[in-house]
Amino acid sequence: MVDETEPSAEDREREVLELVRSSRDKIKRELAKRIIGQEHAVEQLLISLFAGGHCLITGAPGLAKTLLVKSIAQLFHLQFQRIQFTPDLMPADITGTEILQEDDTGRRKLTFMRGPIFTQVLLADEINRTPPKTQAALLEAMQERQVTAAGVRYELDQPFFVLATQNPIEMEGTYPLPEAQLDRFMFNVVVDYLPENDEVAVVMKTTSGRDAAIESILSGEDVLAIQQLVRSVPVAEDLVKYAVRLAAASRPRQVGTPEFINDYVSWGAGLRAGQFLILGAKARALIAGRAHVTVDDIRRLAAPVLRHRILTNYKAEAAGITIEQIIQRLLETVKGPIE
């Protein structure tokens, strides 16, 4: 017998869709209390969160990367932890370790003490400053949403969102992330210097009075419901083919690869690029209040999806060709279904 009081799947989807639409302006308004400018970075972080992905954030020190991440955690009422990655950091410092404890009866037993990775929003600050062994400790957690210690699996709380920062200025004594780990990040979000007017506003705001408190708009359960709704957003097959062609065109020495890719690229984007382009486009459409994906959604996300998946060669470096220029040429070369 069907419980008529239980909402149907369609009713639940409509409720979540209305929740996203009604929360859109509130989210922008609350973040504006702390964050000035950086609209593209804010949008990409929100898209990644709603799509269930992780982000790599690249930017110079002092550009409010930590403040942005912490503000998003507060906005969605999520647990927040920050790990400062250093050369002496060990995997157990992140995941946790077993310690010997004595109970009330005097018996000793090993007890697992959870590390800072057991949170919902994890800021991995300067991830390229720690050795590969410690970087790899994040792999299982990012992909499987779990941690294995002493043969026992521990589930992480959901939603689980990793944001790792990199300082692009100081590269001496760092450990660049391997391609396999870079590929697990949905976006590489670039946080750049602000225009003069925005920078003046930041200085005025941060040197007078206290920081404004951010009101929680949504909960972790709401985020999980939105993540589920994102995957049900319809997308035309032609748009999926466009995303796949865009990623495939970045791979050198393949059939149909543009000549400039063969000249300047040593390694192109893999299968995850196409998946994240479509998943991100669905989340972007939902945030914009649309129930369908457009070509513009995919094109707007090409840079954050591809910039950490394309490796340039020495010829590009000698010619001063950047990743951003290569992605722009890809967008000009690979035509969409309505172009």
N-to-C SSE series? Answer: HHEHEHEEEHHEEEHEHHHHEHHHEHH
CATH-defined topology of the largest domain? Rossmann fold
Question: Can you count the helices?
Answer: 16
Binned strand content: 15-25%
Largest sheet features: 5 strands, parallel
**Which structural class matches the secondary elements?**
alpha/beta
Number of strands: 11
Percent helix range: 40-55%
Distance separating the two termini? 52 Å
CATH hierarchy class name of the largest domain: Alpha Beta
Q: Can you identify the CATH superfamily of the largest domain? A: P-loop containing nucleotide triphosphate hydrolases
What's the mean pLDDT score?
86
Give a verbal description of the structure.
The protein has 339 residues and is α/β, with parallel strands linked by helices. The strands form four sheets. A five-stranded parallel β-sheet has the order 2-5-8-1-9. The protein has a two-stranded antiparallel ribbon with strand order 3-4. Strands 6-7 form a two-stranded antiparallel sheet. It has two domains: 185 residues, P-loop containing nucleotide triphosphate hydrolases (Rossmann fold, 3-Layer(aba) Sandwich); 107 residues, Magnesium chelatase subunit I, C-Terminal domain (Helicase, Ruva Protein, domain 3, Orthogonal Bundle), CATH 1.10.8.80. A hairpin with a 5-residue loop joins β3 and β4. The N and C termini lie far apart (52 Å).
Task: Summarize the entry for a quick read.
This protein has 16 helices and 11 strands.
Task: Name some characteristics of this structure.
339 residues, alpha/beta, Rossmann fold, Helicase, Ruva Protein, domain 3, 2 domains, 5-stranded parallel sheet, 16 helices, globular
